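Model it.
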Amino acid sequence: QVQLVESGGGVVQPGGSLRLSCAASGRIFSINVMGWYRQAPGKQRELVAAITRGGITNYVDSVKGRFTISRGNAKNTVLLQMNSLKPEDTAVYYCNANIRETPSSRLSGYDYWGQGTQVTVSS
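Modeled.
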């Protein structure tokens, strides 16, 4: 079984910074992609940023230049550094990982989700 544990959410003023962390544990052979999604009240969940096994990153347009996704120093971790935060960044942020549990798992892997962490940007 695979678990994703997030940390780092909180309340910050506009213009401030937060760093989210996500650690994947359990039966993991390889991770294809790790990323962060967010869901604001009344809105659909959207992809914020993702990083592939090869290090290719992808960002939603609204966070480009402000957010940076990277791998953590610990194995199977991903970080999201969020700078210049805006009130519209307020949402529950979810870690997502596409994982192959064993060498015989399908190449496309399976998606796993964290429990979510609240980020609130308010003065």
